[in-house]
Amino acid sequence: MRDRPTRRAVLGALGALAAAATGATAGASVRTAAATGSGYSGRPVEIDSFDGTTLAGRFTTPDGEGPFPSVLMTHGWGGDHGSERVRRLTDLYAGHGYAVLAYDSRGFGESGGRVGVDGPNEVRDVSALLDWLAARPTVATDAPGDPTVGMDNVSYAGGIQLEAAAEEPRLDAIVPRWAWNDLPYSLAPNGVVKAGWDALLYATGITGSRGLTSGDGWPTYEDVENGLDPEVHGTILYATATNEFPDEGRAYYAARSPGRKLDAVETPTLLVSGWPDTLFVPNEAIRTFEGLRERGVETRLVLFQGGHTLTDTAGAEQRRVLDDLALAWLDEHVAGRGAADLAPVTFYEVQTGRFRRANALPPANADARTIDLADASSLDATTIANTLVPTSTSQLSPVNGDHVPGTAAHFDVPIERDLEVLGAPRLSLRVSPLGPDAQLFAKFYHLSDGDATLVGNQVTPLRLRGTDERTVRAEMVAIQRRLRAGDALRFTVATTDAGFYNSREAVGVTVHHAPDESTVEVPVVARRD
Q1: Cα–Cα distance between 421 and 479 in angstroms, integer?
Q2: Which pLDDT tens digit goes with each residue over 486-514?
Q3: Beta bridge partner(s), residue 509
Q4: Rounded Cα distance, 166 and 263, in Å
Q5: pTM
Q6: Which residues have a Cβ under 8 Å from the Cβ of 405 and sit 6 or more positions away?
Q7: Rounded to an integer, what distance in angstroms lies between the CA atom of residue 493 and that of residue 491?
Q8: What is the arithmetic mean of pLDDT over 329-337?
Q9: Strands 99-103 and 141-143
Q10: pLDDT at 216
Q11: Distance (Å, rounded) from C-alpha 184 to C-alpha 409?
């Protein structure tokens, strides 16, 4: 008789793949290394949620009587509370005087229930866990039943923070890292389905959820079906077959989108996002930041060189800075240990390897430079062909480029003085689709010393329904790049991208670029350093 693997052993074996896909790195941060080894201890816990579902986790408290301020956290999609990042942040906070409850989100790890993609059940789980924390004598409270508590962690754990903050006034502060604003936009931006990310998330969700190893420990069709909400299965299968999300799927993910509930959020929020994050692009955090800031909610935005990406991963020094900022935020708003003194925007600059501060994004001293594509071409129009296989690569690919002539149009703009592109460009393209359902992928390359670098590893997809000539307008993915006099900024539109499903009903697109027909507005800051 074979030994049957435990559920956690199965999840652990799959962890390396999930970590690589989300840019996770092993090893403790500088702060963690200094904090571990003494001063706190933890024990496993099982907590019954509102509907009797058991949530598994670990409760860690500093040495001493307390009571202590607390941190509630869960994990990334497909993970559990034993993941490296959860352990690292537990060490960070427990080592600085916080009680930490780390738990397996519903349907993942050792918790019961079905995965609902941070839906209403997961929000009610947070409320049940806050009740549990408030009843611990080692946890400080703001009032009876109201724990002194903040939340932190990345991705799926970031989403539940924003979702819960819209419903749960007991949260004193949150640090949603790598979180989304609008899930339909995340998974199918401008209607173009992310083939690579959506497939990877689906596979990780199936393998990480309780459906894989429920029952006798061996997966069956029923196990897989019962792990994730049926709407997740239906949406991904429909999108794979038809190249678009069904109405029911869009509604399901829209209901789990914090950007549609910001009017209900009053919790001080520190948002952390990655410039090269191609799952939840930086625009998502920027939109949340701007939405909360407009309402007067205390909020800050941090952008770093990492997130959901295979091409750029934050090193130990960036992680240390992010952890320091998160700790300072909770120290101010949860523990009451003094002002964090964070700028409205803090962002990492990959070319210099340092963090900078700004008052907004784009900053107040930025100007909008309009690029007329007619100035970069002697033609009035360019037709680009759609191929059977992707000829442009980005998103999950570590190698970027447009590899087949005739499948992309390039417009090079020479840079006459030092400047910085900082923010989200806006494009206005005059196009004639050559088929009823065409797609375009817009991006910027930095040309310098003979090299072309895809800025931020980012691409903005556009879906063109119908064959009529029209002007399409869109916000591009936000980027940051220093350009020197003598460099060039290349605007490129391609018909395919390896990170997305191709158009199945168009042979290409004609881009019109006579004077004033097609433009791109770029936020720029003049540089003197």
Answers
A1: 7
A2: 999 999 999 999 999 999 999 999 999 99
A3: 384, 433
A4: 8
A5: 0.91
A6: none
A7: 7
A8: 98
A9: unpaired
A10: 56
A11: 28
